[in-house]
Amino acid sequence: MKNRNVILLTLILLFIIFAYVSCNAANTQKNTQDQEPHDTAFKGSTFLIRMDDLKAINIAANYLKSLGETVSFQETYIEYHEAGKTAAKISLIGNKTIEYSGDYLEVRLYDSEDPVNHPCEHCTIIYITQDGKILGQNKIFSDSPILDGESE
Fold it and tell me: Domain span at residue 12?
């Protein structure tokens, strides 16, 4: 009888340990899944935020090359735009406007024939979506150079 009680007690103890370990393992798997973002916009935003400047410039330059343009610039400016509650209206070349509701990067490539006296004469803007795709481009030309403290 004593051996039977010891065996029964051992089985009960093993069952409790097994139940505890299996419940804890299921809970650990659930916590790991909760940490992964399910929202595709969040995943895309992470892609943009983690992208370094050279990668963004490379994507923009490759896009321009694919259009047959010669890529040259002296300065760059990269700005991250977070999605708002309403879609952003983005001006593109050819007086076109698109609406985009996700996060995006604005990559500006500044070029000038005379960078010393007239910096930032030409500006090409490339818009990169949160998925790394190109929304389009725009170009800005400075007709009148900015005069530093001079008046006419």
Answer: 1-36
Q: Give the up-direction half-sphere exposure of residue 115: CA atoms within 13 A in the CB hemisphere.
A: 7
* 24 and 63 both lie in a single domain: no
**Does the reported pTM lie above 0.90?**
no
Cα–Cα distance, 62 to 152 (Å, whole number): 42
Q: What is the pLDDT of residues 102-132, one digit of tens each?
A: 899 999 999 988 877 777 788 999 999 988 8
Do residues 69 and 128 share a domain?
yes
| 15 & 78 share domain | no
The residues near 31 (Cβ < 8 Å, ≥ 6 apart) are: none
Residue 11, classed as helix, strand or coil, is: helix
Residue 95 φ/ψ region, left for φ over 0, alpha for ψ in the -120 to 50 degree band, beta for the rest: left
